[in-house]
Amino acid sequence: MRGLLILLCVLLIYGMIPTIWIRRNAWRIYKKGMRKGAVALTFDDGPDPYYTPQLLDLLKKHDIKATFFVVGTRAAKYPDLIRRMDREGHEIGLHNYRHISNWILFPPFLQRGLRKSALIIERITGKRPVYYRPPWGHFNLFTWTLQAKYPTIMWTHILGDWKESIGVDELLRRLKNGLQDGAIIVLHDSGDTLGADKKAPAHMLKALELLFAEEEAKKMEWLTISEAINAHTNKQTLRM
To answer: 199-210 pLDDT, tens per residue?
Structure first.
């Protein structure tokens, strides 16, 4: 029991409290875009050999550009999908080398993993990733040391699409509610991570297809993260 309490205290100090503080104070993180009438659509946890090609087909059909925060090991396993993302004008960011919470990652492993992931993506596309999103939005006492190198992107709307039980209709409702000025929406193109349902991305794809047919969605400007936050002219602005 004592060992469990010590472990809980360490977890609170190392991970949970920094996460709450950083997210509440928006410290060195982007939580919202800067363009009115625009939405940034982002996807975490991929690439996935089954769902990501379908997603890319859907985005191409509607001429919509998105940002993919990819897992390093999966990028290395499916380089053709990374190449296709880049070729079709999407932005690629980092989502840890493996899908592991920063609450249990020590600084050297996190830094090494991000560096390795960035090199993998750069070798495939010829472009160095700029942005980072931590799995589950988890930070720790030392993640701030990486935020100057990889500006951290959070979200305005996280829709729970990793659960198959939500269903297409409810997910569509949540997506429509997310169509707000400067919104950054998180979705997931893989169901293989801890806590996710393997077939959940199928519902996400159907909900997106229905959303793109809505008049309100047709009027929105769909941007990559760089475009949404005017990254090229506002790189020094890390507090939103």
So the answer is: 999 999 999 999
Active site residue 45: no
**Domain at 2-228: CATH architecture:** Alpha-Beta Barrel (3.20)
Choosing from 90, 95, 99, 188, the catalytic residue is 188
Could you tell me if 163 and 197 are in contact, meaning their C-beta atoms sit under 8 angstroms apart? yes
Query: What DSSP state is assigned to residue 179?
Result: -
Is 95 an annotated catalytic residue?
Answer: no
Domain ranges within the chain, ordered by starting residue: 2-228
Candidates 44, 45, 161, 189; catalytic one: 44
Task: Write out pLDDT tens, residues 125-156.
Answer: 999 999 999 999 999 988 887 777 889 999 99
Q: Which one, of 6, 14, 23, 11, lies nearest residue 136 by Cα?
A: 23
